[in-house]
Amino acid sequence: MHTDTHTGLDSPKGNWWKPAHKSEKVWVGIAFAWCMVLFAMMPLWHWKGGQNPSGIRTRTTPQAFGARVGEFIKQYQTGDDRGMPIVTPPPGADVYLAAVSFQWMPIIRLQKNAEYTLHLSSLDVNHGFSLYPINVNFQVVPGYDYGLRVTPNASGDFRIICNEFCGIGHHMMVGRVIVEDAPLSAAASGATR
Ligand code: CUA
């Protein structure tokens, strides 16, 4: 009986099983070698690249982190901007910044060239910390306190933009970091607008 259809049980007709051409083998070899290079670069960039800072990561809960942010605000608040507290921690302090749909809380006022430990966490869903216009990006994940050692090296009034889609207000989720040149005085008011 003659039939034109094939099933997986029959070998297809024709000369399809020719061995790979030499140039194809060469390209497969090059691709494999490049895969190995990129594979080696992953750990190498972590240690030598400088763009993957090793933070201090600890477990937390949204409740505990929210309470810690509240304590931080209470301790160092120096003003507010339309209801959002402006907090001025002293150089060397632990800074707590919470992402919560759809805000960054609080507004942080820092001193240029002073070192801080910036703790990031989310009180609900995943958010993305993106310091604008400087290209600094971090995932902000609920349940983890991600502590980064930061030393602001430029003064200005920066925006934190959320770069992880988090819901209906994602595009409005903008926070604020103020970096000042002069040493911060304890008596400074938060009226910076
Ligand atoms: Cu928060 Cu998008």
Compact description:
By secondary structure, this protein is an alpha+beta fold. Helices cover 22% and strands 35% of the residues.
Structure description:
Mean pLDDT is 87; it is low at 187-193. This protein has helices at residues 22-49, 62-76; strands spanning 56-59, 77-81, 84-87, 94-100, 103-105, 107-111, 116-122, 127-132, 136-140, 144-150, 156-162, 174-180. It has 2 domains: 15-52; 56-180, Cupredoxins -  blue copper proteins (Immunoglobulin-like), CATH 2.60.40. The strands form 2 sheets. A 7-stranded mixed beta sheet has the order 2-3-6-12-11-8-9. It has a 5-stranded mixed beta sheet with strand order 1-10-7-4-5, with helices on one face. It has 193 residues and is an alpha+beta fold. The protein is elongated, with a radius of gyration of 26 Å. The longest helix is centred in the N-terminal third of the chain and has 28 residues, at 22-49. The site of dinuclear copper ion has 9 residues, from loops.
